[in-house]
Amino acid sequence: MKKSNYCFKCSICELTTSPSSRALNCPDCNAPFDVNYISLEESKVEHNSIEIPLPINSDSLISLGEGNTPTIKLHNLSDKLEIELSTKLEYFNPTGSFKDRGSSIMISCLKQSGIKEISEDSSGNAGASISAYASKAQIKSHIFAPSSAPSAKINQIKVYGANTYLIGGPRDQATIEAKKFSENHGVTYASHNLSPYFIEGTKIFGYEIFRDLYDSRKFPEHIILPVGNGSLFLGALKSFHELFLDNKIHKIPKIHAVQTESIQPIFSTIFKTDWNPVNQTKTIAGGIAVATPPRLNQMVKAIQQNNGTCEIVSEKEIIEWQLALANQEGLYIEPTSAAAFASIKKLIKSKVIQKGESVLIPSTGIGLKDTSPI
Ligand SMILES: [Zn+2]
Question: Is the pTM of this model over 0.90?
Answer without folding.
Answer: yes
